[in-house]
Write a structure and sequence with these properties.
Layout: E1 3-8, E2 44-49, H1 53-65, E3 73-79, H2 81-86, E4 89-92, H3 100-103, E5 106-110, H4 114-125, E6 129-133, H5 135-147, H6 158-163
Antiparallel strand pairs: 1-2, 1-3, 2-5, 3-6, 4-5
Length: 167
Amino acid sequence: MAHVVRFIKHYLNWDKSSVEESWLTNGEIPADPLAGLITRDNSFSVYFIDDQDSALSRCIAAFAANRDNIQEIHYLIFDETHINDSGFKCDFLLGELPDPEVNNLHKNLSEISSQKLVQFATAIFSDCHPGSCDRLKVKDLIMSSLKNGWIDKGRLNRGMKRSLNLS
């Protein structure tokens, strides 16, 4: 069964152990996690991966390598059944990351209404696995992807090349 990766701004918004739930009524979640599901034109990107840690590491490396410098990366992992149950339109859309294989894992979720988004967030909140990679780990993942030929150095922008001491 495939899992879905969604890159977010801050994984702690999804950390269930840090949520004070006494003020929430049954079935509610805090509003802060919704910040990780910001849409553009009523859609957002996800990556479908298998159960292997290597696929997640490769996705993180590609996503991070597309930035201007090395930054901590935050993400959610959840089961693909949540996408199937969401009512979102799910289409393959070739990604724009510097790793062609990761680009093939990209899907665009669209036709997202506010109601569907809240229902989706509520469904995945208790089931998702939030995570992060610190800057050192991110640098190691990018360098490994470069060494393995998964990321083409020529596709990195100048700022990232500087951050990696490649320029």
